Amino acid sequence: MINHYPEIPPRTKPFKRAINKVVLFVLGRALQSLSKADPLIRAETATWPEGFTLAMLVKPKGGSMAVRRMPDLSLKYLGSQFPNDEADVTIYINEVESAFKMFTGQLGSDVAYARHSISAKGDLSYTVSVVRVINVVEAYLFPRLISRGLMKEPPPIPWGRRQSLRLKTYLLGILFGI
Amino acid sequence: MNFPEYYEFSFPVKIISGHTALNKLPVELAQAGLSRPLVITDPGVGKAGLLEVFLNAFAESEITIGAIFDQTPPESSTLVVNKIADLFREKNCDSLIALGGGSVIDTTKGVNILVSHDSNDINQFRGADILTGPLKPFYVVPTTAGTGSEATNTAVIQDLEKGVKMLIVSELLMPKAAVLDTRMTLTLPPKLTAATGMDALTHAMEAYISIQQNPISDVFATQAIMLVGRWLRHVTANPQDKNGRLAMANASTMAGTAFSNSMVGCVHSIGHATGAVAHVPHGVAMSVYLPHGLRLNLPKAAERIGEMLLYLAGPEVYVATPPEERPAKTIAEVERLKQDLYELSGLPRTLQEAGVDKDLFEKIAALGINDGSALMNPVELTLERARQLLDAAWQG
Ligand SMILES: [Fe+2]
Fold first, then answer.
1. pLDDT greater than 70 at residue B314
2. pLDDT of residue A108
């Protein structure tokens, strides 16, 4: 009779968890690379205090990434192990499915917030600025057809810059951290 | 037409509404097994004689007021919150009652976090949806009709030393009950009545068109719009009208419920910034900006703006207006309400009348586009649109 009432530990979704972790890495490296060149992102980071750290984490243990605002307005990728209680702002994505939707271009930041898919710890006064930065990054990483559905309106990036920075981000930024 | 793919709605607050509703509060506490509430209020409440009414309501009850803190400043601060939390522990209180307006209610929410988590550092609780419970039983008796704080999940506490506003969002911050007692708002002067009423209308209208809008918050929003449409002029003209006062108190709570679940939008973004930069009272800023904020959202929310005409102006006007003209008619009705309130109470209609210096526009716009409320506004609030809104609001 003992085994009739077994304990059931949480199941795993290794594929989605793995994809989420890859996209967190891509996002971190893309933020680092794009913040050196894109004027829209730099206009936002100019309003963040120097040394400001932003962490993003999939709850409960689905991966994380963090970036720090440097003196030259760029963002430095701090890897996947940054202790999130030391970040100024930590954005939590509350469960694996929402994270997967956000990271695969099926769910935009503002709608995710509206659906309580994300919560945030720390100083909320930077939230809107952070969302604008993420929108710009998404506009580079995703094809326009997809990124258009993720935000209220696409950020004003000229066509030429979008193509050249997209190429640079994928080839150098994400692969080599430049 | 669309229906939200997913939404959440939370409203755990019991409403106790009546001309002498306060008399029921001791029973509520006793039934919850409570006997020593700490009462938090401000000097104005005492001066208006409302504290007397409040204490009389506890006559012949089993409740001992553990302590009264009656020095809450107009802007809640970490210092005050810490001081009151100490008082709560010292006097062995078991619950909290906020008797006052927005600042008193926010302060009490802050105190509740500290005493429930046995902490003296509100800073570590900053954020959205990260607070853990349970919190102490908490009751609200609002003395204004507009902020809706008795029904919201948000507290703003200022850190005066660092000069920052700390924002905490959590459904755990909502009280167990809100007591809407006519006597508490009967003495509000007409201009303040008009301004706070327009704040309530703005909460309801912005919640109704928000990205986070959902069918249950719509019910609260539309009823609030209807009550404001029917009663705000009347109460501003007849401050002693008891039914009108109670209707507006209900409108305020319902609008608060709506925006606590669906958020507000660009009128609040620019309004908060105008308060911070040019010190325009919140309700006045709401009234000045509301029609312009609706206009800004026409490209994305025309249909829903048009729907609100039914509630604001009534079925006759709604039916007599062709569907394609309803969005503009809703905005025209808001303008007409503003004009009437101006004539009845002198409520400013424009930024010029509110005494805002045009030189401050750039600062207001820059601050406004970073306000959290911009996130759920249907149209992206860009710097350019914020500037246009300010220019439009200058002369009306
Ligand atoms: Fe408001």
1. yes
2. 94
A20 found inside a domain? yes
Residues B113-141 have a mean pLDDT of 94
* Amino acid residing at B352: Q
Average per-residue pLDDT for chain B = 96
By three-state DSSP, how is residue B271 classified?
helix
**CB spacing of A123 vs B164 below 8 angstroms:** yes
Segments in chain A below pLDDT 70: 1-2
Please check whether residues B277 and B174 belong to one and the same domain: no
Indicate whether A178 belongs to any domain: no
| Sign of the alpha-carbon dihedral angle for A19, A25, A31, A36 | negative
Could you tell me the CATH number of the domain that includes residue A50? 3.30.1050.10
B32 plus B97 within the same structural domain: yes
The answer to whether residue A152 sits within a structural domain is yes
Residues 6+ apart with CB under 8 A from B194: B232, B236, B283, B287, B341, B344, B345, B347
Inter-chain CB proximity B6 and A115 less than 8 Å: yes
Helix (H, G, I), strand (E, B) or coil at B227: helix
B224 has pLDDT over 90:
yes
Task: Say which residue, B389 or B75, is predicted with more confidence.
Answer: B389
Q: What is the count of structural domains for chain B?
A: 2
Provide the residue range defining the domain that includes B31.
14-184
Specify if B7 maps to a domain.
Answer: no
Q: Which residues pair with A91 in a beta bridge?
A: A56, A120
Report residue B42's pLDDT band, with 50, 70 and 90 as the boundaries: very high
- Which ipTM score applies to this complex? 0.92
Q: What are the pLDDT digits (tens) for B344-364?
A: 999 999 999 999 999 999 999
* Lookup: tokens for B16: 């106790």
| CA dist., res. B292 & res. B301, Å (int) | 13
Contacts of A127 in chain B (CB under 8 A): 372, 375
B1 inside domain: no
Q: Residue A123 is part of which domain span?
A: 12-171
Same domain for B19 and B94 = yes
- Mutation target for A interface from B5, B6, B214, B259: give the one with most A CBs within 10 A: B6
CATH of the domain at B223: 1.20.1090.10
Indicate which CATH number applies to the domain containing B79. Answer: 3.40.50.1970
Q: Do B211 and A114 touch (CB under 8 A)?
A: yes
Are A25 and A65 in contact, with CB atoms under 8 Å apart?
A: yes
Write the burial class of residue B190 (CB in 10 Å: 0-12 exposed, 13-18 middle, 19+ buried).
middle
Alpha carbons within 13 A on the beta-carbon side of B128: 23
